[in-house]
């Protein structure tokens, strides 16, 4: 058609070709637009489904890999908390050749404080490749597993119930027939008693540096970079040794660790310290620091306490 038209008057050819092109372009644009606009909701919907189907990355790839190796390990998993429920979470156990104190390390009590569970998984990997001196270590890397996977501080509670009933660290000593977090706290309290736990470490994080915020009355507010404990003799000694050793290596004043007495009522450290009289700590790093730095602080604190308790070299 184009060749034929070219033999005719240039003007007519030009005119007709132009019309044809416009017409074709119009049809093409119309089709494409309709195709894109028409399928847009479907495309968005598919994208949303795809995103929802992706596993949530609340752990670093390194921690995720360790989790895959140990989560179902028959030699390491000692038992579970909340067995048979959606809150079920493994308790891992490492034991030395000689009798000694039993330590319970909880991480992921609050799901939006990731340095704790990152540190727990790295500790698990390190312990799997070394020999303990004595005693035993129980580690629960994701104690509030559901909140951890959602990066949430608490789990939700039924309407009309105070939200703090979904905060594991306000539910101790717990209740055998209560809401899920009360039952979980109860099982942990029972575990502390049954296994004669002699040291409890609960790994947390806080948004503000303890040494940065102080009100007119001289009260500190942030809890980042603190060790919080019930002041019995063993706890005070361990707290001082640990803070001293940590602070020797920390030059930035703000990042130094402070000792804070009296964990909040309802917390694991409060319950273990008051009910069982054992050294029990809420270990708090500051979320303003990089994850690597926070994990490093958590790991070093845990290791100093394990060493001072005679469990590792
Ligand atoms: Zn916390």
Q: Work out the oligomeric state of the chains in this entry.
A: single chain
Percent helix? 40-55%
* End-to-end distance: 91 Å
What is the tally of beta strands? 8
Structurally, the number of domains stands at 2
Major sheet, described briefly? 8 strands, mixed
CATH class identity of the largest domain: Alpha Beta
Which fold name corresponds to the CATH topology of the largest domain?
Aminopeptidase
List unreliable stretches of 5+ residues.
Answer: 1-21
Order of strands, main sheet, comes to 1-2-4-3-5-8-6-7
Continuous helix count: 9
- Which class do the helix and strand fractions yield? alpha/beta
N-to-C SSE series?
HHHEEEHEHHEEHEHEH
Q: How does the overall form come out from the CA principal axes?
A: globular
Q: What is the CATH H-level superfamily of the largest domain?
A: Zn peptidases
Which percent range describes the beta-strand content?
A: 15-25%
How would you state the average pLDDT, rounded?
89
Ligands bound to this protein structure: zinc ion
Q: In the CATH hierarchy, what is the architecture of the largest domain at level 2?
A: 3-Layer(aba) Sandwich
């Amino acid at each position: 058609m184009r060749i034929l038209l070219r033999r005719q008057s240039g003007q007519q050819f030009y005119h007709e070709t132009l019309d044809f092109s416009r017409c074709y372009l119009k049809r093409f644009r119309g089709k494409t637009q309709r195709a894109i606009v028409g399928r847009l909701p479907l495309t968005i919907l598919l994208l949303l489904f795809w995103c929802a189907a992706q596993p949530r990355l609340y752990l670093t790839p390194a921690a995720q890999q360790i989790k895959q190796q140990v989560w179902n390990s028959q030699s390491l998993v000692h038992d579970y908390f909340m067995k048979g429920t959606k809150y079920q979470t493994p308790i891992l156990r490492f034991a030395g050749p000689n009798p000694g104190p039993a330590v319970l390390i909880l991480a992921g009590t609050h799901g939006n404080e990731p340095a704790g569970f990152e540190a727990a998984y790295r500790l698990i990997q390190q312990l799997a490749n070394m020999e303990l001196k004595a005693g035993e270590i129980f580690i629960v890397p994701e104690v509030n597993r559901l909140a951890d996977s959602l990066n949430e501080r608490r789990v939700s509670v039924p309407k009309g119930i105070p939200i703090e009933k979904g905060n594991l660290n306000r539910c101790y000593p717990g209740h055998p027939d209560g809401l899920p977090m009360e039952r979980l706290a109860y099982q942990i309290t029972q575990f502390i008693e049954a296994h004669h736990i002699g040291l409890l470490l609960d790994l947390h994080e806080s948004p503000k540096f303890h040494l940065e915020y102080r009100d007119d009355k001289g009260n500190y507010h942030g809890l980042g970079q603190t060790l919080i404990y019930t002041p019995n003799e063993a706890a005070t000694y361990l707290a001082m040794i640990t803070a001293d050793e940590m602070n020797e290596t920390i030059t930035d004043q703000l990042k130094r660790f402070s000792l804070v007495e009296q964990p909040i009522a309802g917390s694991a450290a409060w319950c273990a310290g008051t009910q069982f009289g054992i050294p029990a700590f809420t270990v708090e790093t500051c979320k303003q620091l990089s994850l690597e730095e926070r994990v490093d602080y958590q790991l070093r604190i845990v290791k100093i306490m394990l060493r001072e308790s005679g469990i590792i070299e």
